[in-house]
Amino acid sequence: MTAAAKPSVGIAYLISCEHGGNRIPPPYRALFRSAHRLLASHRGYDVGALVMARALSRALDARLIAATVSRLLIELNRSPGNPRLYSAVMRQASKEARNAVYNRYYVPYRTKVETAIARACTSDQHVLHLSSHSFTPELDGVVRTADVGLLYDAGRESEALLCARWQAALTARAPGLRVRRNYPYNGASDGLTTYLRGRFSGRLYSGIELEVNQRYPLGDALVWRRLRASIIAALRDALAQWERQDAPSLLW
User: Fold this and answer.
1) What pTM does this model have?
2) 72 Cβ contact list (under 8 Å, min separation 6)
3) Which of 34, 85, 131, 194 is deepest in the core (most CB within 10 A)?
4) Residue ranges of domains in the chain, CATH in brackets
């Protein structure tokens, strides 16, 4: 290898899904006896997120780590000190019950994701973590003006470049699709990827949250299937450019 040559960058993929279901374990079902409609809503889980996560996992031959307990039991995508860690329902439970939920569901899930990344990070391998989510078309009377959102930390150039390439590739494959970056949320706000950026340097880790408008998984099945295929095909296009053109200079 010449002095000017760049080593190849190995990419390890990890897919996660923090809000994949609305399951309430038996010990806590009495607390949610009157919350069936809430559990079935976007506040109970991210509809379609697990389906998307499984499709990404298959396409990239990547490990999938997913949770199916409801976010109303405990919010796996928030830090321990976040006031939204527990829903209003769980805040009515005893401190002992909340601690039990935290130790039984929160700690193991977050530890599993972090451990998987730590094991995959080596001197010659970078981890790309894709976290699958979905968002309600309207929140508090405000209509969301996107079909797909790509959330990242603008301070990490590797994440910004990949999301820009992914957005461009998806728009090219599906003209008219509204693809926005850091919308409907900011990718640097409190969340699992933000926590992991604090644990792993930009040379080792990139974390991106994929957000899909829930009108697709709740709508026509064929349209939803085609959207998943377009998202994955565009990601492949973006990754080919990112790994060849961006990653070698940014990650080494």
Assistant:
1) 0.95
2) 22, 24, 32, 35, 38, 39, 43, 44, 87, 89, 90
3) 131
4) 10-250 (3.40.630.40)
